[in-house]
Amino acid sequence: MLYNLYMRITKKFKIISLILLLSLFIVTIPLTDIDAQINSIDISVQISPEIPGPYENVNLTLISYVVDVNKLQISWYLNDQKKSSGIGKKDFSFTAGGVGSTSTVRIEMFVAEGGLIKKTITIQPASVDLLWETVNSYVPPFYKGKALPSSESKIKVVAVPNLKTSAGAKLKENDFTYNWERNLKFSQNLSGYGKSTYTFQNNYLDQSEKIELIISSIKDNYTAKKIINIPMVSPEIVFYEKNPLRGINYEKALTSDFSMQGKESTIVAEPYFFSPANPISEELRYEWSLNNESILPPLIKNNLVVRVAEAGGQAKLSLSIESLPRLFQSADKSIFINF
Question: How far, in Å, CA of 119 to CA of 166, rounded?
Fold first, then answer.
């Protein structure tokens, strides 16, 4: 009997000892540590477009490789006003304001443990215009159009920021850094603080030039982005008639059939979009021919005097122009002259 009592007491002590041993492994985590772990969960916000412009539609998407955002209770606030809420509401869209405005998007997400994750996105729309010109492309006087670039032309692009602070003050060109990219390649030497002008020469292999610019303000964290495409054109020759008294008649180009009104006429050839911007430059080679036979170059190489033949009839006048330093800057033109 004493033996049975001993065994019962020993068994109770073993159970108590086991409970005490297990209690040593119980870890108490403070509530603040739980909140820290919840807030450290990696949930990012994808913005499209990355740099929104004024009055542009902005799309926000929650992305995480740690938690399933489709199972979270998510609320979206725009300028402190709740706009959307629900389980798995991972997408939100809104229209940005004008230049100088600020849109604040707050996202509240509840995880399964009851914790709250908050994220805030601020959108400050801005814009920048890109104006370009061909530095060395020729067009005749009083031409109302733009001098277009052809192969190996030199092109100048100028950035004109259009950004205002929330107070309405317009930022100046020297308030920004400029990051220029040409044909998907970053131009480090031409980028930097205050570098609002970008000048380059077209490569004959490139049929167009894609220019991308991102500007960032020195203060207030304003950013704007602009992309333009500049196509290359083929240079061309246009013939005009020159009157001794009235000069060149730029209002009427000579078509393929030209009838002379007098015994003599001066034909002027204008080399549109050739480089350099000088029609009688030594870099431009003119080759005139009449009825497919070469003729001597005139004193002014883009001015040819034509006289009526005694027998009358028709003659084919042809001209070939080539920019000698440039591989693919050339053009041909022919007209028929009725005497």
Answer: 22
Residue found under tokens 């707050």: 106
pLDDT in tens, 147-202: 999 999 999 999 999 887 777 788 888 899 999 999 999 999 999 999 999 999 99
Torsions phi, psi for 45 (to 5 deg): -115, 120
pTM score over 0.85? no
Q: Which residues contact 13 (CB under 8 A, 6 or more apart)?
A: none
Give residue 248's identity as a one-letter amino acid code.
I
Q: Characterise 322 by phi-psi region: left (phi > 0), alpha (psi -120 to 50), beta (else).
A: beta
Q: What is the DSSP letter of 145?
A: S
- Measured over the CA atoms of residue 325, residue 328, residue 329 and residue 334, the dihedral's sign is positive
Per the structure block, which two tokens stand in for 231? 């196509």
Is residue 30 predicted with pLDDT exceeding 90? no
Domains of the chain: 44-123 (2.60.40.10), 127-231 (2.60.40.10), 236-338 (2.60.40.10)
Structure-token match 């002590």, residue found? 13
Q: How far is CA 256 from the centre of its chain?
A: 41
Q: Which of 99, 103, 219, 221 is nearest to 161 (CA)?
A: 99
Tokens of 211: 């220019």
Q: Which residue pairs from 177-181 have beta carbons closer than 8 angstroms and sit at least 24 positions apart in sequence?
A: 177/215, 177/216, 177/218, 178/213, 178/214, 178/215, 179/213, 179/214, 179/215, 179/216, 180/211, 180/212, 180/213, 181/211, 181/212, 181/213, 181/214
Tokens matching residue 133? 């010109």
